[in-house]
Amino acid sequence: MDYLSVLPDYKNCIVNLPNSILKYFGAEPAGDTSELLDKYLKDGYRNVILMVLDGMGSSVLVWNSGSDKFFRKHNAGTVDSVFPSATVAATTSLMTGLQPCEHGWIGWDVYYKDIDQIVTVYKNTLLGKKKKAADYFVAGTITPYKSVFDRLTEAGVKNYCLSPYAEPKTETFEEILDKAKELCAQPERKYIYAYWPSPDDLLHKYGGANDEHPKIVEFLEDVEKKISEFTRGMKDTLLIITADHGHVDTKMSQLEDYPELMDCMERLPAIEPRLATFFIKKGRKREFRTLFNRIYKDKFDLLTKKEVLERKLFGTGTEHPKFRDMLGDYIAVATSDLTLIHTKKVKWAAAHGGIYESEMRVPVLIFKEYFLLGTDIDAYVNEALERLKKQYPWAKKSLFKKNYRYAIEDVDGQKKFIKYYDRDDGTSSRYDKDWDGELFINEIISDQESYITDANKIKDVLDVKPAGGVDCHGWYLEAFEFRSHVLGGYSAFVQAGDRSAGGSREFFFTHEQMSGTFEDFLDSNEELLSGHFGLTRDYMEKFEGLKEFLGFKE
After folding, report:
1. CA pair distance 87, 247, nearest whole angstrom
2. What is residue 375's DSSP assignment?
3. Overall pTM > 0.85
4. Mean pLDDT value across residues 252-265
5. How many other CB atoms are found less than 10 A from the CB of residue 165?
């Protein structure tokens, strides 16, 4: 697997999001919760909305939405999709809290041993045909599951699903938002799951996963505008927007172009075009493996069924009784931008299902009430100060840069957050960027953070850089210091450079990081002590005087 490949972390995955929501509402989670989402749910809300925009992976946002845009500013973090990174497996995980190996809905086309057929799951048709697979819904009958909605209903919590494919149908994105607004106005606590099939359809047609495309930019701008308007009217509501998977801009390969390879197969491949399972005729496995690796070397990893199960790629939970029957003799996992097609000529500009980073990483966007602290500007300034104090305990309002002024003003009939910067020459600049309350708090923090840190002068320094210096891939470690400060607290300063460029960064340690043992401190700073330039955790633990310098007792 190459450096762009990412295997799902089922502790930091889309499957954890619904389990956090179940836990929040007092229902029994189906698995591990999301540490990221648990943090936001602590505030308590009457309404929780989980909205899925199909295919909107993190790279789609990076390429098609600027860092100053509404969505990017509300990006609270990233999580992994599941394996495979595709709609059937992923949305089923989002609607159940189960991993793919647990729920058994592992792909668009799935082999069911009970009927000895590959079935296109959502259409309930035989693979590559319009013929119905059975006179019943095969996936729902052979692999039924308990959904998040079932669990919430059992716990007495109202819950709703808004989608073009659920009843009552919401045919447009505006209808989804209008219905969500109507439901949120009702007094009881509730969960709303909302699904929209774009930008997945647009990405398949135009691309835009690994480069900018005007159609994707246009879609995101339109959706951002609608979400901004929706959040302006939210009350006691937390809106979470994520995706089921990302995409990779792709090239296509038609399996029928290799008849000798197809002749080795007992039936057509199943699961997904970028994660295909192959059922091989008796006595021809070695031949198939040799041919496949000759054709698709460095494009796919061809794994045996045993290897896939040992690596627990489809999940770490208890396997569904039917799961192993769905897997053929080999599973080809895309580790490049190539997609396998075997039923018809398809020209996709982007695809998904593999383990490319742009397929696997999806954003978690968090939106709170627009005026979450009311319309008194002092409340937002004070909240910014409290958050700064968590990182910098010496922070106080008297250390704020006085040139900044903050206000809430009426603009064209709407209240808006406004920022002013008053220059020493008497001129002033006014900024109106359509911030909501959370973004405005972060804006105040961004304005003031450097002044807070600059106010705390260095008291003492312990240099931990090796005396002989360190080179790492052409970069030279110029400084690595631990510092104590006059107003309290400790930081680490790192500076490195090459012949033409360089950079530095200072890390201030929080009270929590300093309140445990020296070993706890080292464990909580993996980014700083990651082994770059050879300065590992073990190096720091043994560095003479560091423990005492940082005030840790024996």
Report:
1. 11
2. S
3. yes
4. 95
5. 11
